[in-house]
Amino acid sequence: MSNRTLIDFGKLPLANTLSNSKGDVEKTFPLIVGFDDQTKLVSLTENVDAEYLFPNDYVYDSSQSETMIKYFGDMAEYLESTFTPKTVLEIGSNSGIFINGFKNAKTIAVEPCDNFANKTNDMGIKTYPEYWSMELAKEIVKNDGKQDLIYSANTMTHIHEVDKAFEAVNECLSDDGVFVIDGPALQNILKYNAFDQFYHEHQSYFTCTALSNILNPMGLVIVGVNKTSVHGGSYQIMIQKIGHENSIKFGMDLGDILAEEQELGLDSYGGLKIHFDRIRVHIKDITDQIASLNGSKVVGYGATAKFTQICNMCDLDNNNIAYAMDTTPDKQNKFIPNTGIEILPFAKDRIDSVDYFYLGAWNYAEEIFKKEHEYIENGGKFITHVPEVTII
Q1: Measured between alpha carbons, how far is 47 from 45 in angstroms, rounded to an integer?
Q2: Which fold has domain 42-269?
Q3: The whole model's pTM is what?
Q4: pLDDT of 221-242, one tens digit each?
Q5: Strand order of the sheet with strand 335-336?
Q6: Cα(307)–Cα(295) distance, integer angstroms
Q7: Cβ atoms of 164 and 132 closer than 8 Å
Q8: What is the tens place of the pLDDT at every residue in 17-63?
């Protein structure tokens, strides 16, 4: 694929690589987003090797959020009751909160990060601790047969050669099987100012227009799209083999989504460039807002990959942000890379002393506001940039 540049964020550290000490200087890599005229896919024009992006001590753990536990549990229940699959495969199973939800099917997990692969193995789920590839797909077919349901949440977007990844899915999917992708929708990233979702782990940013252009030539077709609020706005995309589409209604029709994307200009370089040019304005808005609070105690709420991106994109450091707080043990007492911002555990005495929380985990805002209702009632405030820079 050939890419024309939409935006160049400069050289940034990896969003999920935390520093062990304040003075550590982490390696940085170019973060350039481009557009492929043939497929209409928006993706990074160059990237880092997967082994470096997803190490064996990868820190993102989906089971740390009650919102995600419920979301994936409900999704597993829905897919099992709707399609009654005999075999289920999850690509990128992380902590297993989706694949562990199936009670009446043979389940398989694919998870290259050893810390999470060990976890799903301990749950009794057969796990392949490898990166997704055609070789692995053929091995699974040989050992376990074709799969009736293949699910991938926030993983297909991570794979560098996404067309080859889809070909491997096609190899592994049974003729009447269903492949479900779950992940952020480009239109929502742009519509809601969620530009902190551009980072090295996210290789591709899907529209249904681009996916159709990639999938159709290999005999796959989108049969339904459902919109969710997860990660600030995601697509659940249901895919089947051409000629084997079932009659189950799933969300919106593809034609409606394609028309919506075209109206927003997401199928052309010129249309997308208008959206991406606005991101520079949003970055300045954040920088100006934080600068205006000089003298107040601002703390990051959630040491997420998104928060790492905001800090590095907007040149925020421990002079602007006192520290960040996070519930994930593996993140605590580490530092947001190249900022000197320490990550501390949550503690009530720390919360009470904060003037403003920067909402690093804005995609869990509802859950957070409910949890911190006492802080808010006592006059505490949150800062967010989604959908615009606002003090709540």
Answers
A1: 7
A2: Rossmann fold (3.40.50)
A3: 0.90
A4: 999 998 887 666 688 999 999 9
A5: 335-336, 341-344, 323-325, 298-301, 356-359, 381-384, 390-391
A6: 21
A7: no
A8: 899 999 999 999 999 999 999 999 999 998 888 777 776 665 566 67
